[in-house]
Amino acid sequence: MLPRITLITPSYQQAAFLDECMRSVHDQDYPDLEHMVVDGGSTDGSVAIIESFAAKLAWWCSERDRGQSHALNKGLERATGAVFGWINSDDLLLPGALLMVGQAFASDPDLVVLTGVRLKRLMDGTEYRMGVDDPADPDKLFTAPHVNQQCTFYRMDAVREAGLIEERLHCVMDYELWLQVLFRKGTNGLRIVPWELAVFRAQAESKSIVQKKAFLDEQAAILAQMCSDMGLDNLARVLAIGHDLPVGIRGVPLRPKHRALVRSMAVAFLLKWHFMIFSRRDFSMMQRFRKLGIGLGPLDEEQRSQLRILDEQLRADSWLMFRIRRKWDHLFG
Fold this sequence. Notes:
By secondary structure, the chain is an alpha/beta fold. The protein folds into two domains: 5-208, Spore Coat Polysaccharide Biosynthesis Protein SpsA, Chain A; 212-332, no CATH class. The chain has helices at 15-26, 46-52, 68-76, 97-107, 140-143, 156-162, 173-185, 207-210, 212-229, 233-242, 259-274, 280-291, 301-313, 319-332, and strands spanning 5-11, 33-39, 59-62, 83-86, 92-93, 113-121, 127-129, 152-155, 190-201. Strand 1, helix 1 (15-26) and strand 2 form a beta-alpha-beta unit. The termini are far apart.
């Protein structure tokens, strides 16, 4: 028997995309779908679109909320499904996606997380496949996870055990939920499939485009707290130099054996996002990072290249000297 899938669509002022999203869900014809739409009080015609699908919805509302994470939790508090996923109102499910997901969970009682391939649709309509995680490299599931949110589905029990969605996060709640579940359950219950399940629509107003700083600050806050919990206080302080860290975020369940992995997660984040220095704050953070002499652990080829580029920039021993060198290189190459 196929499991009930609870699919939640949080939305706010997305009337331009909402109808297409809703049709992509209900054209699935999945036999046991519990679809909820949680609208934040839109005034752009979204309510009329939601009402046109009301007979097919398990529940919907349109009222002010505290953001996307709160909207998801409002749905989860009413959910009765065995499997959970969410699709944002400007994204789409691909035909047959829910049937493949349901069959996968029905056939494997040990399956906790299933994640597939998403397509990225650019504003000109061009689509391409986005990357997926490599199950042969389990550390990368923590240090560099793709977290393809639109096509990642969880066993509902695991989501409830994690405490639902972290409402203090507004950008990387999907990343945080991924960590909550994997640190609790391990990776044996994770299945990475090559199936194209969803479309991520890249539009000018997408949070991932217009709120990059908030995304990085939230991710840094999660990592800083994990570092502190593992006694890696120097790394936690480094992250705080370069980021405005939101406070009060719940902890991730860690054990002493996770210390080296957490260090690798923080190092990977710093190298990925800050190997190129653009601001005085970047310079101060990365200079402190390198002066600590922290054991970096094993680095892949890309990270070693990033480290070389970083160290070349840090040959300047002050922000003033860095700016002079950068200006010189720009003028005289």
